[in-house]
Amino acid sequence: MNPEKYSRQMLFTPIGAEGQRQLLRSSVVIIGCGALGTAQANALVRAGVGRVRIVDRDFVEESNLQRQTLFDEADAAENLPKAVAAERKLRRINSDVRVEGVVADAESGNVESLVEGFDLLLDGTDNFESRYLLNDVSLKLGLPWVYGAVVASYAATLTVVPGRSPCLACVFPQPPQGLHDTCDTVGVIASAVAWAAAVQVTEALKILLGRWEELHGFLLAYDIWKNQFQQIRPTVDPQCRACSKRDFVHLRESGQTHTTLCGRDAVQISQRKPRGLDLAALKLRLEKLGTVRANEFLLRCRLDPYELTIFPDGRAIIKGTGDPVVARAVYAKYIGS
Known about the structure:
Number of domains: 2
Helix content: 25-40%
Number of helices: 13
Structural class: alpha/beta
Largest sheet: 8 strands, mixed
CATH class of the largest domain: Alpha Beta
Mean pLDDT: 91
Low-confidence stretches: none
CATH architecture of the largest domain: 3-Layer(aba) Sandwich
Shape: globular
Oligomer: single chain
Strand content: 15-25%
Order of helices and strands: HHEHEHHEHEHEEHHHEEHEEHEEEEH
Strand order of the largest sheet: 3-2-1-4-5-6-7-8
Distance between the termini: 43 Å
CATH superfamily of the largest domain: NAD(P)-binding Rossmann-like Domain
Number of strands: 14
């Protein structure tokens, strides 16, 4: 260890020299390398967390650059996978850290192998389906994780320590129903991302250092534009499907299924449980982004290079790709999942 590299951090009493050595022995896996994931990874690598794995299914686009702090215009021009671009940047920042970018879609069939053996899991995802999956794998493996969500100017975070705290399913037994706001439909400001990521990373450092008593213990939410802060202390639900009954349904099956439509360069995304989308509200949202036609039965929107046909039960046909991973990413961006 080069003491000079971490000298200012070691001057901080809760860390010190021994704490820095502990961080260098620690490992974190980040699922999702968008706005939150890039901020988390940047902070953890600079802090000297010894091993960081970044898992993401998407590629860099120009629209990412306003808030996804590890990427630049060259990454977007090359259409680099986010995990690859992040790994390249982070390795140049701190050679003490073993950085691994994994281009993959975290889902029920592979998530255990992606996170097993790490000390901590950080949420950089953008939908509740993925977060319930992370919650289930966290509880099954006894792996602490820190939830985070950002949209528009609103951000929220919750720390889950199996056996010590309520889990995400205690706080949100069911996912929000109907139409979900996403960064691609209502926007996002980078300062909201920075707030959530800062809280997530600080909680992560406390866990890696074993300073359990200093975890905040709340569901924290902050609208950084409206200056509205919420602090809610959740409790363990004795009837919780996940942490009390250990029914890890999201590890058994995804909330979505897909079918590649032969000869049509399209993928159909279906919901195991109907969502009840408000097509009129979705039309108003998507009209800002592309050409939309709609009736009471379906909505069709052209968002180059894709065409989305969306049905009230949440089913959608994504035309312009035969890759289910790409189709799921498009669905999450414009409809939410």
